[in-house]
Amino acid sequence: MPVDITNPEIQNLISALNKRKAFVIAGAGVSSASIDSDSRKIFGNWTNLLRYGIQFCCDKCHTEDNWGDSCRTFLDNEHATTEELLEIGDKIWDCLEAQGKVQEWLNIFDEALLDYRELIVAIKALGVPIATANYDKLLEDITHFTPITLQETQKAIDFLKNDQKQKYILHLHGYYKKPESIVFGQKSYDRIVQDEFAQFINRYIVTAYDAVIFVGFGQGVYDQNFSLIFQWVSTYLTKTKLYHLVLDKYVDATKKTHKDNNNPNVEVIGYGDKYDDLTPFINLLVHNIERPDDLPKTLEGKPTCIGQNRLDLVEDVAQYLSKNYKKPVGILGTGGLGKTNLALNVLHHKAIINKYRRNRFFVRCDGAKDLSLLQNTLVIALEMPVSSGNLGDIVF
Q1: Does residue 112 contact residue 136 with C-beta atoms inside 8 Å?
Q2: CA–CA separation, 272 vs 242, rounded Å?
Q3: pTM for the complete prediction?
Q4: CA-to-CA distance for 5 and 285, rounded, in angstroms?
């Protein structure tokens, strides 16, 4: 079923995105959607990671076989509680620490093979700060942002104060290159929920932003740390909305869970029938964002376009350039016919804005009487850095 963009909940979310008053927290589903099938066997979810940890301890830490068998018994039990799984996490971590193997084990995240870029690209295109509960560097590989953890207090504060200039990914549960930051078992969860700075960051996020979007979360959104965020918002921040994106088939059950947990500020939004629908949904949000700062310096204002025939032509050209663009479009005609008017209306068309954002340029070439002048005109308009001797190569 297509997403209804007129849904009031979605419209409110788009409004927060337009005002840059939204914040994204990426869960394991984002990493799982971005890696290949072999990597997913280890990194696809927390249970898989626990299973790999058990095997690593058996192979590298010389633990007894019955220790591994006992841990696997809990993992194989579909009725295993979160507390039991967290206890396994503690056992794995204790084993790794005792043998000095923590970083060696965490280095497995270097082997997570990126297979699908589009979801992370779409998340970045939302243009809002990004945090994650994941340990890996997949977000950084695509966004080219810098990972920071809650242990780096000054960087974390800079991230919150100046999120559009300091290009960071905030790892709320740790980053694999910094073992001391990892939240993995009950002991580390106890540490983070009692850590004043960590809880300050959580509360700042939900206080400073109108919307916090949980992307790629299932039941993991109810962990001991995030549950505190839900509780705090529900108690003190009636206007802040927490958006939980899930498959359509899980919407009702997820709403019930949030209601049972007394989380009235949570808006559960279904993004589609299958996991592959998440990227198109995020892109739908991106394409409905309008921001004044997306106006390029060289683009003139939108002129009045007179006549329905001309409006129809603007629509046709804009749709072609935004969807099926294969060859340049030529606008031909005698002076005064309205070629400039048409071109500027196309450049200001919503479909073109959403696709190209600041990469829209209007270059007047009236005074460019030869190739050299044309090259210089284009370089200046496009603000292209050049060195002597390569002007023609860069432009053409």
Answers
A1: yes
A2: 19
A3: 0.75
A4: 9
Q: What's the CA gap between 318 and 334, in Å, rounded?
A: 22
pLDDT digits (tens, 9 = 90+) for 134-192: 999 999 999 889 999 999 998 888 888 764 445 889 999 999 999 999 999 999 999 99
Give residue-wise pLDDT tens across range 256-280.
999 999 999 999 999 999 999 999 9
> How many Cβ atoms are within 10 Å of 334's Cβ, its own excluded?
6
* Predicted confidence (pLDDT) at residue 284 exceeds the cutoff of 70: yes
**Side-chain half-sphere of 159: how many Cα atoms within 13 Å?**
26
Pairing state between β 146-149 and 168-171: parallel
Q: Bridge partners of 132?
A: 26, 171
Q: Tell me how crowded residue 12 is: count the other CB atoms within 10 A of its CB.
A: 15
Where exactly are the structural domains of the chain?
Answer: 8-35+114-287, 39-111, 293-395
98-103's contacts with Cβ under 8 Å and 24+ in sequence apart are 98/61, 99/60, 99/61, 99/62, 101/56, 101/60, 101/61, 102/179, 103/179
Question: Which residues pair with residue 24 across a beta bridge?
Answer: 130, 213
Collect contacts of 13-17 with beta carbons under 8 A, ≥24 apart: 13/211, 13/213, 13/241, 13/243, 13/267, 13/269, 13/285, 14/285, 14/288, 14/289, 16/209, 16/210, 16/211, 16/241, 17/126, 17/127, 17/128, 17/211, 17/285, 17/289
Cα–Cα distance for residue pair 95/136, rounded to 1 Å? 21
- State the CATH class of domain 8-35+114-287: alpha beta
- How is residue 324 written in tokens? 């099926």
